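Justification of resources, computational component.

The compute hours requested in this renewal are based largely on the per-chain cost of generating structure records like the one below. Each record pairs the submitted sequence with a full structure-token output. That output is archived, and it is also reused by downstream analysis tasks.
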Amino acid sequence: MPSDRQTADTPEESPLPPGSTESSAFESLIRRVAHVPGTSDLVPAIELSPGLLVADRFELVREIGRGGFARVFEAQDRVLLRPVAIKFLKRRRRLNDSELELFYREARATARLNHPSIVTAHDWGVWNETPFLVLELLDGESLQNALERGPFDESRSWEIVAQIAAALGNAHGQGVLHLDLKTQNVFLLRDGRVKVLDFGLAGLDWGENVPGSPARVAGGTPSSMAPEQRERTGTDARTDLWALGVILHQLVFGRLPEKLSPDATRISAPPGASATVARVLSRTLSRDPADRYPTAAALLEDIGRTPSTRSRRWIAPSALLLALLALAIWSFLRGDVAARNPLSGARFRTLTAFEGTEHSAALSRDGNLAAFVSRHEGQDDVWVTRIGTGQFENRTRGRVPEPLSNSEIRTLQLAPDGSAVVFWAGVSDVSHARSIGLWKAPVLGGEPQPFLDGVAEIAWSSDGRQRVFHTPGPGDPMFIQAEAGPPRPLYTAPPPQHAHYQVWSPDDRWIYFVRGYPSEAMDLWRIRSGGGEPERLTFHEARVSHPIPLDRSTVLYLAGTVDGSGPWIHILDVERRTTRRVSDGIQRYTSLSVSSDGRRLLATADHSRRSLWRLELSDSPVEASVARRITLPTAQARRPRLGSDFLLYVSSDGETEHLWKLVEKTATELWSSNEARVIGGPAIAPGTGRIAFSIQESGQTRLVVMNADGRGRRELAQGRELRGQPEWSPDGTAIVTAMVEAEKPRLFKISLESGATVPLVDEYSLDPAWAPNGGFVVYSGTDVGTTFPLRAVTASGEAHALPQRLTLSRGPGTRRLRFIPGQDVLLALRGDIGHRDLWTWDLATNALRRVTKLGREIVIGDFDVSPDGREIVFERIEENSDIVLIDLSPR
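The structure output for this chain reads:
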């Protein structure tokens, strides 16, 4: 069995007629396991683990999936001597009637179906107050997991669709609707066959669910839900055929279809679709059920005429990215943030098709030139193309000695007249040299030259006669300079905050910029170009970047979430101060640029992946070939932490945040939430294995502490604004974490016994690492330019001297600090702003030693060291992105 489905909508009423045999059975189930008024709402926790004997018959072998409120195990049926899958209802409290009904309905619906493409239900029951369902054990993977590797060719897509349609036809003939059909509920066996799973939202037909009459159940997953199901106006067999159309779209194009706009009658196939694909999608994805295939058999008859040799392998990745961006913008504009829809009817084209990563997209004022940074020829270089020619020119060719990559500023701009590319350059912290400045490379070719020393970002006014720029000093002092004349101070952010991404409004009255703490909490502000007090425009308290005004009242920008997800495209109505996210989590975006007339945009569409790897520490630097990837039951993972015999990590499926504990190959969910997000990362107490992590929910943060098995949960520091990750004291009696006070994060110590909170550091301080001897804590201090220093404080709050002033450059994972267990040796990410490796710093001898030599293509996002000090686990970010061109329709 695969991972189970996500939580579905609760049905509004029972499909079981009063007095029926089924109703009596369900009422009996309710009496056995439901909450009884006047009794405790909690139920004893049941430890489900390999070797456990369930109902004196089924011996659990391993956990193979979880999701929503169910857990799935492989088990051995000791009576019939066969392997099976057992699905348990997962809960921490007594069940309400709706939850029990949902589980009971799945058992009833699945049991009455007998088809080669539908999973077989063997049995069901209740054990220790826990309902369970016994199913056939499947060998393969979910369609959702298979699609993570990309779309299918058209021939295989039709094979899968045909098997699903046959399964639906059988179910519909038995009076059963699925109503939650999606890629997670379709399983691909190793022999190529398909199994449809989870008829948990099925509408059981009691003589009423015929085409044209409403079903009793309305639920499902929004991304695959038909309009009538979403609007609760009635469901029938054609509702499932809509969901099958969504799956066909994902199979062929690798992504969900665009959302149906309010005035549209159907969803059209993307450009380049074959005639057959376009015809089937047009019929299945029609708003009016009467325009869809009347039955699954009718759909099968249609696609039965489709040549099996037809293929979609020629679809270029650029078309996929183009369609993904179109989906994001349609999703956004449906909310109508501004009074009009500035992106409606836009044309999208993927500009680059290089392998690897292109970033820092910039557009000329006339919209005809595009520039970006790419490692296409082995190192970061500035590339230029005249749009429409298909020709790309490398204008730096390794002739700029400093790195060109800095995700925390607008790295690259085209000069107002389009004659040159102006770009940022900085140097490594390893060399202990600091030099930040702007360089310039002619668009038509020539030697790149230094342009403005000591300047980090620059933007020109609409007439090109004025420029705004900032220097890397504390608070990023901002200046305006006319064509001839000295710079005029405009604004300095209150240190240790930063001010980045300056850009002029179309009428030159305002300077928009982003203010806050890079990679942590930034928001969009503006200030009059003539001077004055700045105005705050957004309140994300997360990573915000790349504002681009479309006109006097509309600004597009990028913003992520506090847990590091995103960033996604947002829009701001400046007059109303309203914002809305563009995309729904399918695609990340890392840069935005606009032509002077606001008619053409350029964006970086990022599709990087995160995975976890491990390596053994040695006396010499470890290379990438030695690292081993960790096999996980989830599609992605971040924030790895090593316990004595387990791995802890965080994952998200776009809707639910999870904290997982992996022991060998078995993963156990310790915590999950649809509303809260983990910030910073978890921490494991030495010796005891207790866990602490900070979460944000509804704008509030709090510290969660629990045992290693997920029990004994407590919440601390409620009402305080937490930042970064917590750290346990070596004896496990206290936790140090950063809390915001006087508009800056500062370290506080929290007693586990009393809950008392004591200030530890008065200055800006984040992400502590407690020395194994318990005597002092090392932390990261205030940013200066692209670097920050490491400092230390004793456990009682007094300054603690380090052997030297060591600075690190900002970037993913660089604030993460770890001591090698039992030693005063600190492990940290060190290098230039474009690439970092793990180094150790012996605080007793002041010796620095390189631990890894992974190569510039490997980006470490986070890491941890095992309790015995022999092994490192790290989060690898596999970068990949392309430049996307967006032509807006006339307004």
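The mean pLDDT is 81. The first helix runs from residue 21 to 33.
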